[in-house]
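Case 727 in the screening queue. Each case pairs one protein sequence with one candidate compound; here the compound is alpha-D-galactopyranose. For every case the pipeline is the same: read the inputs, emit a complex structure as tokens, and attach any notable structural observations.

Predict complex for case 727.
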Amino acid sequence: MAITYQSKKRIFTLHTEHTTYQMKVDDFGFLLHLYYGATVRGDMDYLLTYYDRGFSGNPADVGGDRTYSLDVLPQEYPVMGVGDYRSSALIIHNADGSDCCDLRYVSHEIKEGKYGLPSLPAVHASIQEAQTLEILLEDAVSKVQVRLLYGVLEKADIITRSVQITNHGKEEIIIEKAASACLDFVSGDYDLLSFYGRHTMERNLQRKPVAHGNFVIGSRRGTSSHQYNPAVILAEKDTTEDAGGCYGMIFVYSGNFQFEAEKEQFDQTRALMGLQEELFHYPLANGETFTVPETILSYSDSGFSTLSMRFHHCIREHVSRGKYKDAKRPILLNSWEAAYFDFTGETICELARDAKELGIDMVVMDDGWFGKRDDDNSGLGDWLVNEKKLGCTLGELIDKVNELDMKFGIWIEPEMVSEDSDLYRAHPDWVMQIPGRKPIRARNQLILDFSREDVREFIFGQICAVLDAGKIEYVKWDMNRSIVDVYSQAHAQGRVTYDYVLGVYDFLEKLGKRYPHMLIEGCSGGGGRFDAGMMYYTTQIWCSDNTDAIDRLSIQYGTSFFYPLTTVGAHVSAVPNHQTGRNVSLHTRGVVAMAGTFGYELDIRKLTEAEKEEIAKQVRRYREEEELVRLGSYYRLSNPDQDSYAAWLLVSQDKEKALLSVVMVETHGNMAVRYVKLRGLSADAVYEDVETGKRYNGMALMKGGLPLPVEQKEYAAYQVALKRVCE
Ligand code: GLA
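Case 727 output:
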């Protein structure tokens, strides 16, 4: 049993294979958090301590006992207004103007299988793989009920949390803040690993001590954003890749979020993951229920590697869905960096023809094929094929591509509209715009109010008409600006940011259902919406608009802490690179792009014969290693931002095969030799370098490492394929 309840002491215990999570309903009905960490047996309520603490209030129920205060006790779901002055997980604004909600235990249920969430993405699992715990809490005065949901995936070492708030009171309330997970730690000194960035430089790792005060990250941009990823790790001070305790939290949501880490007056730590409280004032009328998006939790007592692998597995198996969850992904050639807006149908066919010769599977026609769209100032919203530009209908173009034995994919950006478009001229009231104010432009485009069903339906009809034009096997769903003008003509304000995201999910769900065989790749100016919420609908996401192989080392390194390679769109592009101007060899570009869903993004027609041959070789190589990339265990072997080389290793589940990839990021005169130590191999096994035939003991590779060549070359890259042999 993954979930147990001890009725005498009212203790709930959630067990996964390597972790324990425990909480307790105390004598006053408060739900206190007891423990989360490595597996323990027995009750952890002895950890609770009670002292008279000055300026920490005492609930009326405790009478004259000044040692009981919610300001000090570890809580499962801390709420504003009951004497806890730390950051709250929930703030309810009542009809009488007060901000208070005193939640006490009412009942609970343990169920087989994993709960699902209405209209929101969530971890999914078979009935045998998971159990659910629901704990019902209530505020006796306002009649607000809060249902805490816990999903326990025992084998996967994953615990999920979500929260449903129902207003059973007569008056409308406003939810001012709602988190889905709180972790309170009575002891410990932690570091916080977060992933910050910007457009074309996403998910840089930052590691900082959690100090007194609040450390807050989040997004107010309407999407999860390039600036901070909704995924963090709380780690013990000395935690490394393969030793030490660490907790991971990912928010399964693609809009505004907020994460807080707080070290309080008694050196206790609180971590909260939930919805961004700014721009959010959700009105809830009598009988209505609000669902807080899910947070996925995991704990590893053996360092970041194990933690990452648990999240990789969870996202691959329990977040991703549909045909491509388990299927090979096509190797594609995207037209964006090949031609930008400057193409015709003939260009697409030429790219397809050349790509076919090199073994590539699919050509993707990126932005520029519709309406009046020869630059990024017009046309969005007019999803009508520009047949003049293509020189034929879309159906004819797809047929021509298919005749070359190539698959066809297309780019769309359904949430957007250009002011210079027929759609905007016909429906200016469909955009997000505050009455009486001019909207803020970004990339010269505005945002359609996707919280409105009528708007979504219209766009859905238009997009389907395009997708029905022929055999379209892939769609790249883009979103190229942040939201500013948070206002809907159709709804109460305060709910728009949330309803917008649910609108996007609704559209994606319908799209996925209507085209179950289509591969949908997410994108938001590269990785501006690279989150587990989107991964529920889009099996892969364009990782960054930065295709420079060396910058990608950092971006893909940060990305790897939570997200599996199956989700990471990575392409080889031209040099000098269009974002950085850097020159990197084709070989190195290939090695870096192979750490993801592989493809190309360059004008293949301009390549020399030698380059074409090399690409054909890369494509063959990727096909050989594709299963390892998709299903192998991923190990970070260096930190490319600190070390002189970037190295990562993929090991097959049965440890029979491994692929080491290395890129040198520094070059100096008379270089010292670097040794890269492998991980995750079978210690007693003998591995053979497939290319050289050289043999090594598994333990030797892990303890002694492999010496990296010293070459007078900038950004040299190496790939070593290893296979287990019998001696
Ligand atoms: C975004 C995407 C790019 C490309 C352009 C097209 O920036 O991230 O890959 O599709 O839009 O406008």
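Case 727 observations:
- The CA atoms of residues 417 and 446 lie 5 Å apart.
- The chain is about 20% helix and 30% strand.
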